[in-house]
Write a structure and sequence with these properties.
alpha+beta, four-stranded mixed β-sheet, about 40% helix, elongated
């Protein structure tokens, strides 16, 4: 497959693109392209023989917004109609997951945020919203208080999985996950 630099005006957005991008994420994408345009060389927009985008519709839109005149593209002109449809979907499926523990320990949250990754920061959370004052009913022993958290089933399953990946008491694991 051939990589070539072409004028943005030659590339056509795919009218059948099933992906959208919200305003905030779009602004982050534009900023990302402006700050790191080499990313487009590493991950060019993919087009078919008619110059219709198969992969990178949002990048194309962001490149226009960023004021670029030319971008690298890859011609995927040997794909059948069915293969093109399959590529459009598979190119946008996120198969992997972030290793949040590694991100928390090895990366600066401000940089990740600047690069467009939405990360949790302690300042984003109002702990008062998490805890209810039920001191009368939550005391088991003198000086001990229970914290009761409510989860959806999906979130509960995620918490249980996180606990399985760590050793120690429930309290030690919770403290580790919270970074305490």
């Amino acid at each position: 497959m051939e990589i070539k630099t072409v004028k943005l005006s030659e590339i056509k957005s795919n009218p059948n693109n099933p992906r959208i991008i919200k305003d905030d994420k779009f602004r982050k994408l534009v900023k990302s392209i402006q700050e790191f345009p080499k990313m487009l060389e590493i991950r060019p927009i993919v087009v078919n023989a008619d110059m219709i985008v198969l992969g990178g519709n949002m990048r194309l839109k962001a490149c226009k917004e960023a004021g670029l005149k030319e971008v690298p593209i890859i011609f995927a002109d040997d794909l059948t109609e069915d293969e093109q449809k399959q590529f459009i979907i598979k190119d946008n499926i996120g198969f992997g997951e972030w290793d949040w523990e590694m991100l928390a320990n090895e990366w600066e949250p401000e940089l990740l945020q600047d690069w467009g990754l939405e990360v949790w920061k302690p300042s984003d959370v109002n702990l008062d919203e998490f805890f209810e004052d039920n001191s009368e009913s939550n005391t088991e022993e003198e000086g001990n208080t229970k914290i009761i958290l409510e989860y959806t089933q999906a979130d509960y399953d995620l918490v249980i999985e996180a606990f399985k990946n760590h050793s120690g008491t429930k309290e030690q694991i919770l403290f580790k996950l919270l970074g305490l």
